[in-house]
Design brief:
- The chain has 16 helices and eight strands.
- It is an alpha/beta fold.
- The protein has two domains: about 260 residues, TIM Barrel (Alpha-Beta Barrel), CATH 3.20.20; about 70 residues.
- An eight-stranded parallel β-sheet has the order 1-8-7-6-5-4-3-2.
- Helix 11 links the parallel strand 7 and strand 8.
- The radius of gyration is 20 Å and the shape is globular.
- The model has no long low-confidence stretch (mean pLDDT about 95).
């Protein structure tokens, strides 16, 4: 099995990606870091593993989040939970997002994460936005928005944990507009988090009860960005480079979290930045997309992830290409890296024949 660094060095250029990765400067504030590159890879449960984060960073993300990490899981020293926290050797740093409801467990988790990652902890984030029923039922995720004083206790507990570890990492939180439209608490809630010591707040412009349906409210995000002195990051519907750049401009936020927009599109971060700077966005050819897919799948194996993840990843990269429907059906029969690579090679050959046939 080849190392991730060797794979990136060999394959990044052909895939239109950057290598080596540029770390955040430890001498800059969070606001200064976002000013130089405001597009961040968002946390995605079951998605944002080491390989995905490496692709996003090579694609221009200023930094990347871990998946949601259970504070309780870290308390019980779950090795599976710790695997979500430890960055790949080639990641300069990692933003770690915790979820839970017990302030004492948050303090313990913050101290453990900070002690383990040290300077490689970009920032520690508290999830107060997850709308998934099994999370909300436990009083976690967006359910925390029903009790601002309790959310403040969690933030202060996390700060205490960071201080205990002697790590001066920014402390952030991700919120929604509230749990339901009947209680649009986002503005007062965000102010309470700022008072509790948050370094920044990310706002997803939907209510918890909406899940990902409807449209994210840019005006609500703008309200928070105007009211707070700390940086606000906009979240929701950043599905293309243009939409990501527009979301930053229209909301007045200092940064944008990109999640679903990165599916099969690791270039979205650098493309959005180019648009922000008034530059043209390059066309990512089918060959570049296939090269990026191959690199992503090789990184998946190199970082120890299960190759079954490769099925969904492949479908994302192939979507929209001529003949992709047949290829996606073939993807579902693949189980090993060699099988996936053979399918990609065959698809590329068929694509070349389609383009040369009169």
């Amino acid at each position: 099995m080849r190392e991730a660094a060797a794979l990136l060095e060999e394959g990044a250029l052909g895939a239109g990606l950057a290598w080596p990765l540029t770390p955040w400067s430890s001498s800059e504030s969070l606001a200064e870091r976002l000013a130089s590159n405001p597009f961040v890879m968002a946390p995605m449960a079951g998605v944002s593993d080491r390989a995905w984060r490496l692709m996003a960073r090579a694609g221009g993300a200023t930094t990347a989040y871990s998946e949601m990490v259970s504070a309780a899981g870290l308390h019980f020293a779950s090795e599976k939970t710790w695997e979500l926290v430890i960055p790949d050797a080639n990641e300069p740093e990692l933003a770690v997002q915790l979820f839970g409801s017990d302030p004492a467990l948050f303090e313990e988790a913050a101290a453990k994460v900070a002690a383990r990652l040290g300077r490689r902890l970009a920032f520690l984030d508290v999830n107060m936005a997850c709308p998934v029923a099994k999370v909300v039922r436990k009083g976690e995720g967006v359910a925390l928005m029903d009790d601002a004083p309790h959310a403040e206790k969690i933030m202060r507990a996390c700060r205490a944990g960071l201080d205990k570890a002697g790590v001066r990492a920014p402390l952030t939180a991700k919120i929604r507009l509230g749990r339901t439209p009947e209680r649009p608490v986002f503005l007062d809630f965000a102010k309470a988090l700022e008072d509790a010591g948050a370094s920044a707040v990310a706002v997803h412009g939907r209510f918890g009860s909406q899940g990902y349906a409807g449209t994210s409210s840019i005006s609500a995000i703008a309200e928070v960005a105007t009211a707070l002195a700390i940086p606000v990051l906009a979240s929701g519907d950043a599905l293309s480079p243009r939409r990501s750049a527009d979301l930053l401009r229209e909301s007045g936020a200092k940064g944008v979290l990109i999640a679903r927009g990165s599916y099969g599109n690791p270039w979205i971060f650098s493309d959005a930045r180019r648009l922000l700077q008034g530059e043209e966005v390059p066309v990512h050819s089918p060959w570049q997309r296939l090269s990026a897919l191959e690199l992503h799948l090789r990184l998946l194996e190199a970082t120890g992830e299960h190759m079954l993840k490769a099925r969904q990843i492949s479908c994302h990269y192939l979507r929209g290409l001529p003949g992709a429907a047949d290829a996606r059906r073939g993807v579902m029969r693949c189980a090993t890296l060699d099988e996936f690579l053979a399918l990609i090679e065959g698809f590329g050959e068929e694509l070349a024949r389609r383009q040369t046939t009169p």
